[in-house]
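re: ur question from earlier - yeah i can do the single chain one, its not a big deal. heres the input i used so u can compare w yours
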Amino acid sequence: MTERNGTKMSGADKEKSEAPFRVGSPPARPGEKATFASWKSQPEDLKKLDPLNCTTKDTEPHAFGLLRVLNDKHEAKGEWDPKLEPDLLRKGLEHMMRLRIFDDRMLKMQRTGKLSFYMRSLGEEAIAIAQTMALESQDWIFPSYRQPGAQFVRGRDMVSMICHCIGNELDNAKGRQMPVHYTYKEGRFISISSPVGTQFSQAVGVAMASAYKGVDEVTITWLGEGTSAQGDYHYGLNFASAFKPPVILNVVNNQWAISTHKNLATGGVNFASRGLSYDIPCFRVDGNDFLALYSITKWAATRCRAGLGATHIEIYTYRAGAHSSSDDPSRYRPSDEAEFWPGGDPVERLKMHLIKIGEWNEKRNSELKERIDSEVMAAYKEAVTYGDLANGPFPPASTIFSDVYEEIPWHIQEQREELGK
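and the output i got, formated as tokens:
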């Protein structure tokens, strides 16, 4: 034992105290037991604030707490219950089931060489779907990788999405983006960006433009907790703080940025509270609770439409699958870790809530699952009639010159002629 400032220290404590810096580590590695502390937060804990008469300071308990609506018995409780009609809940469940089945089928196709790359949203289906359902059709969506479900809410056809993933002649991105980097102009779903984080500043800019034009438009965007360690996150927050545009800024804390644990992304107690210093109302919400996500997004949108500025939300969830088809999570975390996540499965939780209120049953659930699976397979079979990964046809080379300039400049025209197009 040694002493420091009159306090006795063990060898391990002494070693830690003399370390030049702290390196965050995950709670468990492969071969170790996965553990998560049980949630003490309950739906009744947090008061629902008036979105039109709320200060940033009023949201401090919500930034350090956890906003929930569904309790462990699948009951909707507390002031944040949005009291949605059963038809809307069933539609939300259908969208989430569609995304999960679509993801499963697409990953199988990637594994059999029919797609080059894929990313699933396993365990995170409720996020984009509930939040987009809480918005209006004119609102702008700036997604990250795991928000493709927003397109189902906005009415995108699965054939179109699969054509993009294949990169065939009907790919609306014309082969310029990696698979699952969707863009959907008709649904105001802006192209996903491979350089992570760029969408935060872009979303704030579009929201500023909407406010400048005086139109009724809200912008929503998401990035991961790992990306929040980058400058783009702070640039977006600073502009949102200074100019008060109608934007909803979400940090999806799914615990893992590929193989990097969230403990390396911040030294703070959570991600929600980081927005408080920017004087933006902040909330931490259960990301596997469809009702809580819908409720907080509707609240934030109401504030946006009243000209009161941004809301900053940490969505607390767990990435149940691999980062992508190129990742093997068993190399850096326990293989059964997802089973211990206190937030459970978002699809199962909404299903059980509907059953609890007498608006659903297992038979109807099985029938819906079979119908969606058939629709996904039919969509794939149609998509490959426009070209498959092995044989094409693919977008022609001439498309590299289109969709950038309204009038082709001379130097681009010279390159086009050189290519013979």
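The radius of gyration is 23 Å. not sure if urs matches, ping me
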